[in-house]
Amino acid sequence: MATHCATRESDMDICICASYSGPYQSSPAFILQAIYEDLQHNHHAKEYFGLEGVSDLVFISTAKVPILKFKMNGVEVDMSVSFDIISPPKSVLAARLINAYCQLDERFTILVIFLKSWMKSELSNTDFMRDFPNSYSLILMLIHVLQWHGIMPNLHETHPHLFDFEWKEESMYPLEWTDVIAHQQRSTNTLSVAQLLHIFSTQYSNNIIINCCKLDMGSGMLETRGERDNAPIFIQDVFDTRNPARSVRGNEMVQALQCVSKLFSNPKNLLFQRIWRVTRMKTYLLPR
C-alpha cells in the first residue's frame, strides 16, 4: 500500500503474512532466518527483488520485532513477518489512512514531503529519531493539527470502514471521488501550503500543547495527559497504541518550530530557504 508521499530517501516496508499448520507456530525469526540464508546463497532468489538484486543484507534477530534489512536497487527495505492472516497488518491500515489524506488534498502531500525532508538533520538516523519525530509521527501531527483547525476531516469518524480490520478491499485511491470534490469546495481549500505550514509551526511551537496535551488521533481532539504520559511528544494513535513518537527524547522540534514561527511573523525573500536553514544549521541552538 503506497502512501503517495515518499521522498527519494524513503524506504520500503515489506510484511510477509505467513500461515502455519499443525499445533505449533513457527517464530517470525525462523522464517526470516530462512529468507536471509536464501538471499545470501541463492543467486536466483536475489533476482526476485529487482534487476540489481539484493545488497547490504542484515538480519536483526534480537530485536523485539525481528527484521531483515537490505537494499533493493538502492532502495532500503525492512522485511518483517506476521502470522495474523485474518486481518491486515496495522501498518497497512496506517498507510491506507495516509493514502486517503493524500488523495483528499494535494497540499497535504506537499506538506508531508516538505516536513519530512526539512526535519531530517545532518546527524545519523539514531540522532534524528531522538531529536525529532519519525516520519509516521510527523504525518500524524500534521493530520491532527489540520483536523483541529477544521481544514481536514477526521477520516476515522467519517470513513471508519476504511480502517476496519475486516475490510479487505485495496485501491490506489481509497476515497470516493465525490468525497474529494466535496472537500475541494470547502472554504479552507483556499489556504496556501505556506499558510498551512504556518499553522503547523504555530501549533507545535506552543509548549503548553506539547507538554500538557496528547494528540488523540481517534477523536481528533487535544486531550489532557495522564500521569504516565510523560514523553516529550505524546500521540494516542489508533494503530500504534504505544505512542509512535516514543523515541523522541528532547524538545528540539519545538525550538526549531519557534524559529519558523518567527520567520512567518516577519517574512522576507527566500522564506523556504530560510526555513530549511533552521534544521540544517541548527539555528534554534544559537544564543538568543
Q: Work out the count of structural domains.
A: 2
User: In percent, how much strand structure appears in the residues?
Assistant: 5-15%
The parts where pLDDT drops under 50 for at least 5 residues are: none
Given the C-alpha coordinates, what overall shape results? globular
**Gyration radius, to the nearest Å?**
21 Å
CATH class placement of the largest domain = Mainly Alpha
Descriptors for this entry?
288 residues; 2 domains; globular; 13% strand; three-stranded mixed sheet
What report would you give on this structure?
InterPro entries: MTPAP-like_central, NT_sf. The structure is a single chain. The protein has 288 residues and is of the alpha/beta class. The protein folds into 2 domains: 20-82, no CATH class; 90-285, Poly(a)-polymerase, middle domain. 43% of the residues lie in helices and 13% in strands. The chain contains 12 helices and 7 strands. The chain has helices at residues 28-41, 43-47, 90-104, 106-119, 125-131, 135-148, 155-158, 177-184, 193-204, 207-212, 252-265, 271-280, and strands at residues 12-17, 54-60, 67-72, 75-82, 213-216, 221-224, 235-236. The strands form 2 sheets. A 4-stranded mixed β-sheet has the order 1-4-3-2, covered by helices on one side. Strands 6-5-7 form a 3-stranded mixed β-sheet. A hairpin with a 2-residue loop joins β3 (67-72) and β4 (75-82). The longest helix has 15 residues, at 90-104. The N and C termini lie far apart (45 Å).
